[in-house]
Write a structure and sequence with these properties.
Layout (H helix, E strand, L loop, with lengths): L1 H16 L1 H37 L4 H38 L3 E7 L10 E7 L5 E8 L4 E8 L10 H11 L8
Antiparallel strand pairs: 1-2, 2-3, 3-4
Length: 178
């Protein structure tokens, strides 16, 4: 107890020696307290306004029902996203299986006719499997042939033009119509 009395006695003595400084410090502390109180009062008023808007016209039961609807909606959205993700995966896998490589070779099947009206086109997937279609146009008739291709090879005899179309489709720099 004596130490407290000594500390207060020292403070009282200091204040008696420096009354102007003590008054300035006291005023500064009061102004600081008023500023802090004002800031916190404004924050509390803002929270009260937000609280009032949140609970306007609702009871605790209404708020709980709204929260439950929001949770259900979020779960439905997650399920929908999962469903769409699976659909995209299916589309991606079927796109990989589709024809992504093409090769085209145009030629004159009937010498002297001109116009290079005959052609062979190879339509292949990523595994170089698919088909090669050949259209041979003559003076009086036109013939169309379609042959299967598996891993870049056909089990049917291919013409040189069909081989060129397949080679064109499998070349990395020329995938697409040439």
């Amino acid at each position: 107890m004596d130490s407290i009395d000594n500390a207060l006695g020292g403070l009282v003595a200091w204040v008696k020696l420096h009354p102007g400084t003590a008054l300035a410090i006291t005023l500064a502390l009061h102004v600081l307290a008023i500023i802090i109180t004002t800031i916190w009062t404004n924050r509390i008023a803002g929270l009260a306004a937000r609280h009032k808007r949140l609970f306007r016209g609702t009871t605790g039961n209404d708020l709980e029902a709204q929260v439950m609807r929001t949770i259900e909606s979020a779960q439905e959205s997650e399920a929908r996203i999962e469903s769409l993700s699976k659909a995209v995966q299916r589309i991606d896998s079927s796109f990989i299986q589709g024809f992504r490589k093409t090769g085209f070779h145009r030629y004159d099947a009937v010498p002297g006719q001109g116009g290079m009206q005959s052609f062979s086109i190879a339509l292949l997937d990523d595994a170089n499997s698919g088909l090669v279609i050949t259209v041979i146009t003559g003076r009086a008739e036109s013939r169309t042939y379609c042959k299967p291709v598996v891993n870049g090879i056909s089990n049917m005899m291919l013409s040189d033009e069909e081989k060129l179309a397949i080679a064109s489709a499998t070349l990395p720099a020329q995938q697409g119509l040439a």
